Amino acid sequence: MSVAIAFLFCLFLARFFYIQVIWEDDLNARALDQWTREIPISAGRGNIYDANGELLAGNVAAYSVYARANAVDDAEGSAQLLSAALGLSYEDTLEKLTDKSRS
């Protein structure tokens, strides 16, 4: 009986080793695929010109950043990083990150 338990334990350890060491790269790639995604950006719309060839309406690239205030742990640090990276006011960014009513 103890030999059977020892054998099963060895099988368990071998399987654990196989998953942790041999499959490591594959499992890391799968995990990354589950947590990241690419969002396709559709092509821009056509420009609108008047009869003289002057541009009336064109395309402008616009990006958005989203943060849930109730999920931010370090609002001051996050506001400092975001304001520096995005060229925004630190005070406005901090106010938006701490306003729990908007989340």
UniProtKB/TrEMBL annotation:
The keyword Nucleotide-binding does not apply. Keywords: Antibiotic resistance, Hydrolase, Signal. It is an enzyme of class 3 (hydrolase). GO terms for biological process: cell wall organization; response to antibiotic. Residues 41-99 form the Penicillin-binding protein dimerisation domain. It catalyses: a beta-lactam + H2O = a substituted beta-amino acid. GO terms for cellular component: plasma membrane. Its EC number is 3.5.2.6. It comes from the Bacteria. GO terms for molecular function: beta-lactamase activity; penicillin binding. Belongs to the class-D beta-lactamase family. This is beta-lactamase. It comes from Candidatus Gallimonas intestinigallinarum.
